[in-house]
Amino acid sequence: MPSSAPAGSRPAPWADAPRPPRRSRWATLLRVLLPALVIVGWLAVAGVGGPYFGRISEVSTNDQSSFLPESTESTRVTDLQGGFRDSDAIPAIVLLVREGGLSPEDRAWTEETVASVQDSGLAEDRLSPPIPSEDGEAVQVVVPLPDGEVVDDVEALSAAFEQSRPEGLQAYVTGPAGFTADLVAGFAGIDGLLLGVALAVVFVILLVVYRSPVLPVLVLLTAVFALSAAILLVYWLAANELVTISGQVQGILFILVVGAATDYSLLYTARYRDALLHHRGRAGATRAALKGSAEPIAASGATVIAGLLCLLLSDLASNKALGPVASVGIVMSVLAALTFLPAVLFATGRGAFWPFRPRFDASGAERVRVVVQGAGHRPTVEGRGVWASVARFVARAPRAVWAVTTVVLLVLAGFSTQFQASGVEQSELVLGESQARNGQEALAEHFPGGSGSPAVVLVPTGSLDAAVAVAEDTEGVADVAAVADGSPSGTLPLDGDTAPPAGPFAGVEPTEAQGYYQLRVTLADAADSPEAERTVRVLRADLSAVDEGILVGGATATTIDTDETSIADRTLIIPVILVVITLILMLLLRSVLAPVLLVLTTVVSFFTALGVSALVFEHVLDLPGADPSVPLFGFVFLVALGIDYNIFLMSRVREESLVHGTRAGILRGLTLTGGVITSAGIVLAATFAALAVIPIMFLVQLAFIVAFGVLLDALVVRSLLVPALTYDIGRAIWWPGHRRIGP
Length: 743
What we know:
Layout: H1 25-49, H2 73-81, E1 90-97, H3 104-120, E2 131-132, E3 138-145, H4 150-160, E4 170-174, H5 175-186, H6 193-210, H7 215-239, H8 247-278, H9 282-309, H10 317-348, E5 369-372, E6 379-382, H11 386-396, H12 398-413, H13 435-446, E7 455-460, H14 464-473, E8 477-483, E9 491-493, E10 512-513, E11 516-523, H15 530-546, E12 551-553, H16 555-589, H17 593-619, H18 629-660, H19 662-689, H20 697-729
Antiparallel strand pairs: 1-3, 1-4, 2-3, 5-6, 7-11, 7-12, 8-9, 8-11, 10-11
């Protein structure tokens, strides 16, 4: 049959190819049935997992002490305290203040209200009697609340002390229960508000990127289905006590899955759209897209999972839980992006890109053309578009580009030394208005700052007198009392002489349990203050000299142990993550030099993000510091996710280099992946930025660090630094296998 091509034209490569054999009915049926089964399967997963969005909070906890390893001193104290009490009540402190002094009416109303609350059954145990301040302007009542619906109980307690309150008398509910209620309330929007904001932001960005109303919906469905499957598995892992999750782990899971699933979907969609230009049918385009995207997506997911699983080395249960929990989310993101999205795009075909449908190009013309001009094998890019211009810019002066970029990044990274991550006061954890914080400040004006949150000291029975004497002589200690069941208040005041006093305490002895007496040491400073931490450290050292069996716990000690454990985790885990990710990149890129340089650029990017964050937190947001785990979490996400973009870029560069040579491959890879990497970076940054809607300092700081770091990585490091550096090095970047690839 004569060719129908115009005279003198070059026929398409497949013009004279024989027609493929007709598929059997079974093959055709399978080609249609398999995508349908995949879609139905994911719909079923979403149907089962969807309801668990609102239930995962049932299996999460925000109790800091539950995350510490059993070996820490404060955890051992908590375990032994069970012998001194029958409940796990959380103390709330009701503080009543009148400037100029409390009136008789105030005192009478307080007595009546305390009796009313006691009769209501709101408290887990008996309330303390009203305790007046020395200046006569305040009175406090300790109310042991049950460890359950803390937010509701604190609200009910506040309401009880608001009812018929004398005019001019101020009332606060503070103490451990008040701060716990603030924290729980802060995480309250994590199920709905956080996810809603994240999905809305991603939808708008995808709408702008794709200029299609259909494709963003399909991509978001991929992310939501992946999240449904992840939440379903994580819920049952936590319900069976295989992992311990907190509100912050829950929020990070939501954001990570939405961001990662969207990133992987963007990579597949870019490949699929490109394949539709070169394949008439959807089946051929799907096979080509899967062939081109499966390896980088799977490698990217494996790298992130490997980095996250390094958190299993942590001694903090909250950090340790994030490893498997987030890994489950990444696995589901990869599966959804490589199964559900290809199936649904196969079903919709070119219609998914409406109104800008990609048209089949029978000429087989290349989207990006790189030619070699002149001596020295210096290629340049022919074509239009932003990324063709960026590639030409990199090719003109690669050494100047990477040198200037590196210097700017290193200067900003120098400010990372100002990043204060030694811990923050509990009262600063929740941003915005806080009755508990205001009450704590008022409490410190009229009582010892540590009232309601005393240090708990467990003393072996033979060392009580010496321990009391040391505690009372310690600077920063306001009061020492022993737990005594026979006392009207539950405690026995001590003054260095542990003999039973006269008066209402006559005949009362300190309670003994498991060979210990329990002392409650009231600190002069607020329990979450740096001054209180110094006092507890001194107590531990001095009491240990009296008897190594003496244990010091309580809220302040728990904070100390948590911060020290976080710092130890950070020191151990960060180097391990770097080694693991470097090894994975070596296997993927079949090179030693390239992975080392890529990891170094990612580390520089992280410290730059940390340096800029230090400036913003201190001089713009006026934040008091950061939790020690903030840099660790920021490092895990920025390095693991930053390597994603390295994989997206360098896997395509290597693919192109094998055909066109290294320098031409770098320019082609940059031009072909620049758009998708930038889009993925913007989406991931916006997704993590959504964490800032939750008024928890940890999440707000993590949101800024990761969002800024991801943008920096996608827009600067992966667009300029890495291409310019690898272009300048040339073929040697693939050492030791560089001789198999052209210059």
